[in-house]
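Project channel, design review

CF: Before we commit to the Dyadobacter beijingensis constructs, I'd like one complete example in the thread so the newer folks can see what an input/output pair looks like. Taking DUF3857 domain-containing protein.
RD: sounds good, go ahead.
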Amino acid sequence: MEKFQSIFWNTIICTVLLWPGAALAQTDFSVSRINPALSKDADAVIRVDELFWDIRSQAEGVERTRLVVTIFNEKGEDRYGSTQEWYDKFRKITELSGTLYDANGKVVKRLRNSDIEDRGDGIAGDDISDNRVKTASFGKKSYSYPYTIEFISEVRTRNMMFFPDWTPAPAEGCAVEYSYFRVKTPAGFAFRYQECNGAPGVKKSKDAEGSDVYEWTQKDLARPRSDDFYPLPPFDRIPLVFTAPADFEVQEYKGNFNTWEDLSRFYYTLNAGRDLLPPNMQEEVKTLVKGAKSDREKIDRIYKWMQGRSRYVSIQLGIGGWQTIDAMTVAKTGYGDCKALTNFTLAALKVAEIPACAALIRAGKEAKIKADFPSSKFNHVIACAFAGKDTVWLECTSPNTKPNFMGSFTGSRPALLVLPTGGKLVMTPDYKAPQNVKESRALVKLTETGDGEIEARSRYTGLQHEPRVQLIQYRTKEEQEKWLVSHINLPSMDLRRFELAEGVEPEPSVTEKLSLNVRNCATKTGTRLFIKPSLMSRTFDMPATSERTSDFYLPFSDYNFTDLDTVSYDVPANYKLETTLPVFQIASAFGSYELKTSYENNKLICARKVVMNGGRYGSKDFAAWVDFLKKIRKADRTQVVFVENKL
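CF: and here is what came back for DUF3857 domain-containing protein:
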């Protein structure tokens, strides 16, 4: 399912050859015809971008695309220099062609069939797929800039679970002259669409045959700004038209996606009866949970058992990658994709009489779905088990993840529970500042010249532990050290030793220990020693301006956190405190900052606490956000001054 969905969503390709009756686009592709306001500083200009979706019936559709792009440099070539179409037993590519024009709009080359690459869709040894991909490309840097390329494709599909979406918005650094989307259906045929983020409104009509026609058109979109701090996610920012089926057919299955309950019911029907384990394994599960004191303990045992006897393999076979391999096969082979491993886990939970179900989800960092527009935009399946009133989420593709930890990949988002009578959207565990904690303590032994030896110990939880747990699980010692050095906020540093260890508590955590030598840990100037209380603390980028006309977004995965940093300096005995000890307290709607310092018996103790609350904020709040950052920066730059005691 993962790869199948990526074609339809992650690369929202909006291009199409005009069919009879479609709006007339230009055919002269000389560069001189481009409006200078569009081509100025652009990597590429999309001249024609058309998508035609012809719904023939509930069981068949044809998608036809045409993309014409003038490319000005290597960045534009990297973005638009090739195109891909995938196919399987449900999708047939009936046309894929390419034409290259020079700066004057004259044809330089047309791709032959032998120029188009055709390969299997598996990208690694752990992929099993019956998909194939055709790639049309003219190669890199083979033609002098600027030049124009045109790609045309037509695909016939018998999998009507998925309809194309459209956006006229160009990629960063690119502009659009003309973008067009057209849907054609039999008279009275019901399908669903939704216009978002300022997308142009639909124009409805009938053609000469009586078919219903829906059209969206956009012209002259300049390249988006690339210097925007904190832009809204594309999902909430770029113009989009979503389309989805009402009633549909695929193979011998019929369904509809009018509601989330309908979609859930279809997925359940598609996979019903595949959750039976072989008899010997059923006995193994019963023995496994014998003596467990609670349903939660049974869930934890089964999850750990499943992780230890199976591995993830991406499998894209059958009905769009949506129908799971049965639990018997997974029990025999020991591997499966997200659907199969989830189904295998559910089968084991069923033996243990633990109520549980599959949950469809859109995985990825801060990925989203339209909660008010039911459609098959999911790309992942997880398990949801119930222990009394408690819900336990299980990521079945990971051999290491602890039960009920979703993290940035599947946390804080809607999931569709799959139930026989129709499921519902529910939220996976949320990860806010109190869950994403860094708590660090550092002991710094300063020399009279300001150099320091540092022993630091930090504990990370929630989303803050994810980068380091991935280092432990997937990186060598050398790779771990390289990553740590690049992420330690200290100049002139020598990392002598380090240690990373996962916690044994139910809630996932990582403990990090560092031993460092730091030159100029404190600044020596004459007889004075300047010490920073915020040593090794997280820093924040400062926007160039405090003015803003649009909403801004602080990503939850980056800005929902709590940092608790304590640094203890052993100050050389021949220095005495010269300045007052700094104290700061800053509060805002975005979070809070607190710095406390104390000094006694040649030990300077600095305690810093930062709490951040990510999310979407209005343009009127931007000046307050910048002011908050300025105050934090000022507090972090404060220094405690010691002077040599010459008595």
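RD: helpful, thanks. The longest strand covers residues 44-57.
CF: The mean pLDDT is 91.
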